[in-house]
Inverse folding.
């Protein structure tokens, strides 16, 4: 399970050091794709396979389903960790997520999110935890 928050920088070539706690779980190769809310999402290979299988089970005769599949699959990139523990994030993904210098990596249980620091601060400032906790209770989720 991925958890925690890590602040890092991305260099001018688009390389990002992946925290060792995440690397230990991810392995040397994994997938990075576009995520909701303007961030990137990292899946280990097993998680990506499960995600692909979920997409394949969706009714592709529906336009909205095809759009969702295209969003995630067209943006997906296989990445490899180098000897310094870095990955190269493709330019189109860096542009999508607004990654320039300072980034934040967030553990999200079965995946990892990569945010530009500015977007993360904006997104986390908008959180109303009390409302979310009430919704979770309505869904039967107790903390």
């Amino acid at each position: 399970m991925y958890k925690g928050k890590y602040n890092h920088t991305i260099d001018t070539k688009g390389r990002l050091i992946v925290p060792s706690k995440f690397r230990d779980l991810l392995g040397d190769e994994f997938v990075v794709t576009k995520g909701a809310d303007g961030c990137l999402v990292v899946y280990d290979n097993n998680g990506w396979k499960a995600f692909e299988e979920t997409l394949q089970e969706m009714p592709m005769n529906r336009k909205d389903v095809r759009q969702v599949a295209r969003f995630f699959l067209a943006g997906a990139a296989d990445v490899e960790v180098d000897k310094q523990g870095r990955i190269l994030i493709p330019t189109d993904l860096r542009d999508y997520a607004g990654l320039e210098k300072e980034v934040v990596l967030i553990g999200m249980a079965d995946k990892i999110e990569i945010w530009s620091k500015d977007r993360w601060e904006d997104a986390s400032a908008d959180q109303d935890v009390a409302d979310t906790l009430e919704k979770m209770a309505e869904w039967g989720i107790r903390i």
Notes: The radius of gyration is 16 Å. Strands lie at 5-9, 15-17, 29-34, 40-43, 77-80, 86-88, 102-107, 112-116. The mean pLDDT is 92.
